Amino acid sequence: MATESERISVSAASEAVATPGDELMDHAQDEGASGNGEVLPREMVQSAITAPLLEGHVRYLVEFADSNVEFRRAEFDALANAFGFTYSAPKQDLRSTFLVLDSTCDPNLLCQVAQRAVMVRYVCLVWGVGATLEDCISDALKQRLCPLETYKTATFRFDFHRLGRKKLPKGRRTAMFKAIANFGFTGKIMLENPEYVHLLIEDYTPTGFAHPKLEGHHCASPHLVITGTRLCSSNRSELLDMLDLKVRNMIGNTSMDPELSIIQANMAQVMPGSLVLDPFCGTAGLLLPCAHFGGYVMGTDIAFQVIHGIGKTSRTNTGSKLRGPDENIRANFRQIGSSDKCVDTLVGDFAHLPWRDGLFLDAIVSDPPYGIREQTRKIGADKPSRGPIDPASATYFPKSQHYELGTLFTDLVQFAAEYLVVGGCLSFWIPELLDGNDFEFPSHPCLSVVAVSQQPLSSRYARRLVTMKKMRAPNKGECVVPIKPFSVRPVVFDPKKA
Fold it and tell me: Any bridge partners for residue 443, and if so which?
């Protein structure tokens, strides 16, 4: 990253996340051999679990969801910071499905993080690890990571998790039942509501990184086996079902994917009582998870038809081309049971701020239009009007003009510096051209960059989720460091510029 006095840029070479491709196919054919000496993700996980455990620490294993790989660790770290959960973790591949961490904190804090994070599946307390089932059970029985006496007489069940295989190889289940019998648990087995749910996790992927290209390259036996007891599961399925675009009352042409909107709310560290603003709210897709997490939300947008829930519907097969009575932003909040958290949504132009001066916002979340499916507009006129204008007239409709992207994002960062409370977060999406040049975004001396995560959209362009935190009040004379004008529209729609 550049210094605060310089424009912030991210090198396309250094920041790009390594995505699995042909090199992983080579690993698949070698059945997990690193070949060129590269340390594979699953090898890092095994090394982290077998490392000595410091006195007073507890070792946990986090399993992430398979989607949006680059956002997983960033979301987890943002929530850990918000809930005050501190941990240490050895170097691990960000592509890995697992994260091994040690902590002395209350495990309830970790549960709060996991239950809110949409990219976490579950967290378990690690007992042991091994390259084979027998080695894993033997390691657990040494009780070097966790004493097993607590679970001796308690009711329990074992869940078998597989990474990289849908079905177990023939005879594998019988072998697993025989192996877990070595624990000697005398408690009653209960499939419903046991005191403890223990896990036996097997990794059949050649690398320790699940990816669709590896389908059909499964191994006959696992490369890594981990056992432990589940501490908690996430609310991922419930959150995604609640915000599902297919059942949402009102959607727009650019409504954000529910998983990404939840990630953004978590990156902004929205907590109960936070005051949150989306200055380009559209149908309020980014504000819905913020309200669900207890924040009081406000939104503005220059599109008055969207704010008032009138005009053409974005739904098909409704029998009407116009929006129905429940196709409005308020109905979206009612649908998820968060009507009391919606302060208001207003017709407003971000280039002409309606807000009073002063620090009052805890978080700003935004996905401004990129000029692809929605135009970037602001109040103004490229040419002077012919004749008199009466802005107070009921029939007056102001003209709009193009809002250049570089200026828009520069204004957004400056706005955050002026209106966020100290400790507040700005989280926004910004498009990026995949032309080999460094990625740039505006900076401000009082805003510290927390995370920058990329989502590829095509071979020609992507977008990044940039999260900043306000560390102090701006000094007199300090202002945003702007970025140069840019546009993604010509590259997207002109094949000759691909």
Answer: 481
Q: Tokens for 452? A: 């920058």
Q: Both tokens of residue 58?
A: 């507890």
- Using the predicted structure, report yes or no on whether residue 207 has a pLDDT greater than 80: no
The four Cα atoms 292, 296, 302, 305 give a dihedral, to 10 degrees, of 60
Could you give the dihedral angle defined by the CA atoms of residues 468, 474, 479 and 483, in that order, rounded to the nearest 10 degrees?
-10
Q: What percent of the chain has pLDDT over 90?
A: 66
Q: Smallest Cα–Cα separation from 228: which of 119, 305, 151?
A: 151
Angle between helices 69-83 and 107-116 (to 10 degrees): 140
Which distant-in-sequence residues (6+ apart) come within 8 Å of 257 by Cβ? 245
Task: Kindly give, in sequence order, each residue whose CB lies less than 8 Å from that of residue 211, ignoring residues fewer than 6 positions away.
Answer: 20, 24, 66
- Under 8 Å between Cβ of 427 and 467: yes
Written as six digits, the tokens of 221 are 């036996």
Band the pLDDT of 346: cuts 50, 70, 90: very high
Tokens of 493: 């729609």
Q: Report how far residue 229's alpha carbon sits from residue 162's, in angstroms, rounded to the nearest whole number.
A: 15
**Angle at alpha carbon of residue 468, lines to 332 and 276, rounded to 5°:** 30
Task: Return the bridge partners of 98, or none.
Answer: 63
Question: If you compute the radius of gyration of the chain from its CA atoms, what whole number of angstroms results?
Answer: 26
For residue 262, how many C-alpha atoms fall within 13 Å in the half-sphere facing its CB? 23
> Rounded to whole angstroms, how far apart are CA atoms 206 and 223?
7
Nearest-5° angle of CA 456, CA 460, CA 465? 35
